[in-house]
C-alpha cells in the first residue's frame, strides 16, 4: 500500500452533551488503500459509525473534530469547506446506511432517486438520466429494471430497497464506499446476496470499501483487513485471517469467543472468568409430557379470495414437551411471528387447536385472554428490549406489572419482594430498579424484559429473537441466562429466530418454516449437520463463514 | 449465575435527578422557556390574588376623573365611567384564565377519550368519532362558537362549552394518531401478556405516552381559547358588562380610540397578547417536563 486513498491520522472527536464533553473518538489512526476492503468492527458505542460520519463530515451539531486529520486523495476532509464537501459526497465517497427504507424518499419513484444523484453530480443530463439509472438498477441485479424504475420504495422488499440504495451510492462510481451495517435487519439469505453484490460491484469498479459492522463473522468473510474498535479507540488492526487466527488483544479474543459459530455451546460464548463460575448444565435431559400441542393451525388475513388476503400460516402442527426448547427458524414473512402471536393468544386463529396444559385455548378470543387463568403460564420475551418496555415506567414498575394484574393473592409487600427476587434471578442490580428504560443499557433492558416474563412462573416462554438487538458479548450473557433460567425454573421455550447459529445453542429440536408451512423438523444437531431440504441448506449456506478459524485457533492462543 | 451481573453495566448512567433539577435544566437549555414559565407564574398569581392586589374595586365608578390618561394614581388610566383600567385588567385575568382552562380541560378530556377509543379499537368507534369531528371541523370554528352561545344563552358556562366543542377535534385527532401508532408497540403487547384488560392497556400504558405531544397542543390551545373567549365577548356574546374581561374592555374602549383615549384598548389588548404569547411559548417547555426521556 503506497499512498492510501483515505488516511485518518490521530483523529479525535468530541460530543458536547448535557453532562459535559464526551470524547467519542480518541486518537485513532487508520488507512484504506486503493481497492481495499476494510472492516471496522465494534459493539455499540465503540465509535465505528462516528468515524465514518467524520469522514463524510456529517457529524451532528453536538459533535466536532477535536484533533487529528483526515486526508482523502490530497484533500484535507477535516477542514474542507461545506461547498467542496458537497462535490466529494456521492461523487468521490458515498455511503450506505443501515435502514434502507429510511434512506429512500418514500414518495419518489426509486428510478428517479437514482437519476437525481446522477444529475446532481453531472454524470447525466435530463435526457439520458433515465437510461443511466436503469443501467444502474440492472447493475444491482434488480429484475425488470424498466418496470421497477417506476416503483415506490414501499412496493419493494427490504433487500430490494437496499439494492436501490446501493445503486444510488454507486451511481457516480465513487472511489470509496462506506457501508454502515448494510445488512442489519435483513435475512441471512438476503444478507448474503447484498454483501456479495457489494463486493462484486466494488471489485468491478475498483473501489475501496469500508464495511462497518458489529458482526465479526461477516466482516471476516468479506474484508481484507479488520480494525477492532472499543470505546472510541482502535484496539487491534490486522489482516482479516490473521486477526481471526491469532488475535493479540483480550478484547478481540472476547469478541471472537462471544460470536456463536458452528460448534460452540452456549457456555463457550462467555468470557473465561464467567465461564468458570457458571453452573454446569445437566448433560442429557429427558423431555416430559407435551405441554403444548398445536394442531392444524391456520391464519388467514382478510377474506379468502378477496384482494390483499393472505394465508400467513397453513396447517401447522407441532408439540412442545415439558423442559424442551423448540427452535422456530425462517426468513421474514414466513409466518413465524404470526404463529407465535397466535400461540401467545395475542392474535385470533382462523382454524385449528392450541392445546396448552390440557386445555384448548384457541377458541378464547385474544382480547379476552388477559383474564384467562392460563395467561400467567404462557409468557413471552420480545425482540426489541427498548420497544418492549413502557418508556414512562421504571424497571421495577414494568416487572411488577404482571404481578399487580394476575398475582391476586400477593399483597403489595410480597410483590415488592418478588420484584427484588426476580431482579436477582436475572442478574439485574437492585439499584437499577427505579431507572427508566432510557437510562438502562441494552443488556439491562433485556434482563428487565426477561424478569417481567418469568414473574408469574410460566410453563412456556416464547422467545422472539430475544438477542437480535443486542451486541454479541451481551447476547452471550443473555443466552446463558436464558439457559440457566430454563433449568432452574423448569420452563419450556419456543425460540424464534432467523439466526441458526443462535438457535443451535439453546434448542433441542428445530423447525424450519417457509411460506407458512414447516418444511423440515428434526433434532437440532441432526437438522444442522444433515439438512434434508434445499431450503434449510440454503439458510445454512448463507451464514457468513469467516476464514476457517473455529475454536481450535482461538483456543490455541488463549 | 450471580457473576453474570458484572459484565453488562459497562455504560455509565447518570443518577436519576429530581424534578426540580430537571426544571432547571429545561429552563437553562432554552431561556425563552424560562421567560414563558415566569410569565405563566405571573398570570397564575394575578388570577389567584388579583382582586386583593389591585388599588381599586374594578366595578367602582368615579375612582377619579373619567377618561384620564395613565398617571401615578391610575397606572393604566381610567375609562369612561371613571373605573380604574389597571384594576380591571388585573382582575380580568381570573375570568379569562378560568374560561380558557376549563374549556381546554373539557376538550382535552373528552377529545382524548374519543381519540383513544378511535385509535385503539378502530372499526365503528373510529368511524363515528371521525365523522363527528369532521362535522365540527366543517364549520368556521368561531362562527360555530357564536352560534352555540347565541342559541344556548349568554353565560360564562356556555362560552366554556362552546370553546370546548370547537377545540375538541384537535385533541380527538391527535389522540387517535398518537394511540394508533403505539397500538402494537412491544410494551403494549407485553402489557397484554401481563394480564391487563384492553381498557387498562389503553389508559394505563398507551395514553400516558401520548402526553408529551398533547402538552404542546394544550398550551397552544389555551392561547386560542383565551382569544376565542375574548372574541365572543368583543362581539357582545358571552361575558356581559360591567364584568371585567379583556374582550369586553377592548370592545368598550374601541369607541374611544378615535378621540385619542388609547389606553382603554391598549392595556387589555396587551394583557391578552401577553397571555396568548405565554401559552404559545410554554408548550415546548411543558413537553420537555413531562417527557421522562428528557430527564436523563
Descriptive notes:
The complex is a heterodimer of chains A (558) and B (296). With 558 residues, chain A is of the alpha/beta class. Chain A has a domain at 290-557: Rossmann fold. In chain A, 36% of the residues lie in helices and 24% in strands. Chain A contains 21 helices and 20 strands. In chain A, the strands form four sheets. Chain A has a six-stranded mixed β-sheet, with helices on both faces. In chain A, strands 16-17-18-13-19-20 form a six-stranded mixed β-sheet, with helices on both faces. A four-stranded antiparallel β-sheet of chain A has the order 2-1-4-5, covered by helices on one side. In chain A, strand 19 (509-514) and strand 20 (517-523) form a beta hairpin. In chain A, helix 4 packs across helix 5 (129-139) and helix 5 packs across helix 7 (158-170). The longest helix of chain A is centred in the last third of the chain and has 18 residues, at 472-489. Chain A is globular and about 70 Å long. By secondary structure, chain B is mainly alpha-helical. Chain B has one domain: MetI-like fold. Helices cover 71% and strands 0% of the residues of chain B. The relative contact order of chain B is 0.14. Chains A and B meet through helix 12, helix 14, helix 16 and helix 17 of A and helix 1, helix 8 and helix 9 of B. Chain A: It is found in: Cell inner membrane. Chain A: One of its GO terms (cellular component) is plasma membrane. Chain A: This is ABC-type dipeptide transporter. Chain A: It is a peripheral membrane protein. Chain A: Residues 3-256, 292-540 form the ABC transporter domain.
Q: Using the alpha-carbon principal axes, give the shape of chain B.
A: globular
Give the full name of the CATH homologous superfamily of the domain at 290-557 in chain A. Answer: P-loop containing nucleotide triphosphate hydrolases
How many discrete domains of chain B? 1
| Relative strand content of chain A | 15-25%
Low-confidence stretches of chain B: 1-16
The count of β-strands of chain A is: 20
User: In CATH, what is the class of the domain at 290-557 in chain A?
Assistant: Alpha Beta
